[in-house]
Specification:
By secondary structure, the chain is of the alpha+beta class. The chain contains 12 helices and 15 strands. Helix content is 35%, strand content 28%. Helix 5 runs antiparallel to helix 8.
């Protein structure tokens, strides 16, 4: 009986990936809870599990007394001496119990507690696994797309997660069966298991893609200072290297543009502007307004972080961007409020306005 029990625990450890020590602890607790029913719920039951000797010992510990007032907790010296010859008044004695004598109801209780313990262990293991992926980039397979809500059910390892429509890239068409890159925004314990929040629109998705694709970012030679993104349309990323011999932007673009092309492909064709970060605010704002040229940047107010960028007249629309996108992303990237001014001082057309 004991041998079969220990073999079953080993199988659970291998199949579920839950430590045998944890299972023994839960099983011991379950047996104690079950056996206590026969002793009016009193704390007199003990269970020792020895996996090395493959032995389970369940016993009730009673106080040896001259006169018994509580049979659940006490035993007379006369009865105690029948069990152990060295028993004496004021001491305790352990009386072995046979698990088969617990009864059907007690056995069911133990089984329920054991199952609950295994579920808790699986949930804890799953939570720990996902927490290790928190704020990371993972690959997921699309299992199903809800035709009504548009939410996608994804398979991440052995776990299912939902990618809401609001976290999908606008205009991107997802196909059942394909694999996609997602960013793990947060992992929480909901009580029913880990709740994983994932996204395809988060700026850090782009950050992690660059870390994966560009070895100089991964090893710390190049640092990503900031990212601003309008998913599905355009992203701006500011990079910096302390090493003057390293071309941070060039390294991110890669030989023949291969590195950035791989990232653009992973994002479904999203445009990416890679700019040099500078501790000089005016220089940083100027770089952030790429692909437009900038004549100068005037700092208006350091405290409110507002500035004015002057651009050539023929670059005005490019600096502002379609519906203000370029200047909006530049402002998010730098943290500065940017006012665009044409070099001539005269504004023309609706775009300029």
């Amino acid at each position: 009986m004991s041998k079969e029990f220990f073999e079953a625990v080993k199988m659970l450890e291998e199949e579920k990936g839950i430590s045998a020590e944890y299972l023994y602890e839960k099983i011991s607790s379950a047996i104690i809870v079950a056996a206590k029913h026969d002793y009016n719920g009193k704390d007199v039951i003990h269970c020792d599990i020895d996996p090395e000797k493959e032995r389970i010992k369940v016993y009730v510990r009673k106080n040896v007394v001259d006169e018994v007032y509580d049979e659940d907790e006490e035993i007379s010296l006369e009865d105690a001496l029948r069990i152990r010859k060295t028993a004496k008044i004021g001491g305790t004695i352990d009386i072995p119990l046979k698990t088969k004598d617990f009864g059907r109801i007690v056995a069911q209780t133990a089984k329920h507690v054991i199952r609950q313990g295994i579920r808790e262990a699986e949930r804890g293991k799953q939570l720990a696994e996902f927490q290790s992926k928190n704020q990371e980039l993972v690959t997921a397979k699309i299992n199903r797309i809800d035709p009504i809500t548009g939410n996608a059910t994804l398979e991440i390892g052995k776990t299912i997660a939902i990618l809401p429509k609001t976290e999908q890239v606008p205009g991107e068409v997802l196909t059942e069966g394909e694999s996609i890159k997602i960013f793990v925004v947060d992992v929480k314990d909901s009580g029913k298991g880990p709740k994983i929040m994932i996204s395809r629109t988060h700026p850090n998705l782009v950050r992690r893609l660059f870390e994966t694709e560009v070895p100089e970012i991964f090893d710390g030679t190049i640092e990503i200072k900031s990212v601003s993104r309008e998913a599905g349309s355009r992203t701006k990323i500011a990079v910096y290297s302390k090493d003057e011999d390293v071309d941070a932007v060039g390294a991110c673009i890669g030989p023949r543009g291969q590195r950035v092309s791989n990232i653009v492909e992973a994002l479904g064709g999203e445009k990416i502007d890679i700019v040099n970060y500078s501790e000089n605010s005016a220089d940083f704002v100027s770089a952030a307004l790429a692909p437009s040229d900038v004549c100068s940047v005037e700092i208006l107010d350091e405290e409110t972080k507002s500035c004015r960028a002057t651009v050539p007249d023929d670059q005005l629309s490019l600096a502002i961007g379609n519906k203000g996108q370029n200047v909006r992303l530049a402002a998010k990237l730098t943290g500065w409020k940017i006012d665009i001014k044409p070099e001539s001082g005269f504004y023309e057309g609706a775009d300029a306005e």
